[in-house]
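Example 238.
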Amino acid sequence: MTITIPKVIGHRGAAGYAPENTLASIRKAAELGARWVEFDVMLSQDEVPILMHDDTLNRTTNDQGPTFKKTLSDLKKLDAGSWFDESFVGEAVPTLKEALALTDLLGIGCNVEVKPMPGNHAQIASAVTEVIKGSKTSVAILISSFSEAVIESLYRDLSETPKALLVEKIPDDWRSKLQKWDCVSLNCNHKHLTQEQANTIKRAGYQLLCYTVNEPESAASLFGWGVDTIFSDYPDRV
Ligand code: G3P
Ligand code: MG
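Predicted structure in complex with magnesium ion:
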């Protein structure tokens, strides 16, 4: 399985310039020249995949409480923009379906990061699978998750879509995990990556992606180690 991933991916859209995980943020990333965006996907109470990073609504909406307790209809009433800046007042919580329609329209690829809650990995994997299979998108999709249970389900049900194992620190058994789930890349936090690990992963033939890199100097040093791609809140800066 091959996929061409650009050197820079807009993180949560372009989270440095617009409210993360909104359609405005995806549009902003495209406007800044990003060829791909990453966004986070959680499940609403009625099992619709929506864009949200946190377990609670507190930080990025005008409501409070656990994200998974709200139905899509509840979520659609929220303002996910004004916490960032008044100019984004009324920006909605998008569904995965809406985000994929937009990336298709803009002609930009995307990394769909699946974020399960404890106990709902099977439901979120199945709901995301259904949306991706049902979308007529012609742009590239890379699907990733910190949850091995989610990757395992997607390996089975969404075999045609390239997958990435997402980790904070690189585990000792990274190679066998990537092989087992036929992943194209390892996506890790750049803070814990060493040059030696980068060399080994690249020698093994995998793409190496690092989050979240907002300083041009860090980006240059990671690219110097052979890192293929960085996720940035400021995709134009790096
Ligand atoms: O997918 C890369 C990165 O977004 C993972 O961390 O917490 O920003 O979703 P987080
Ligand atoms: Mg993410």
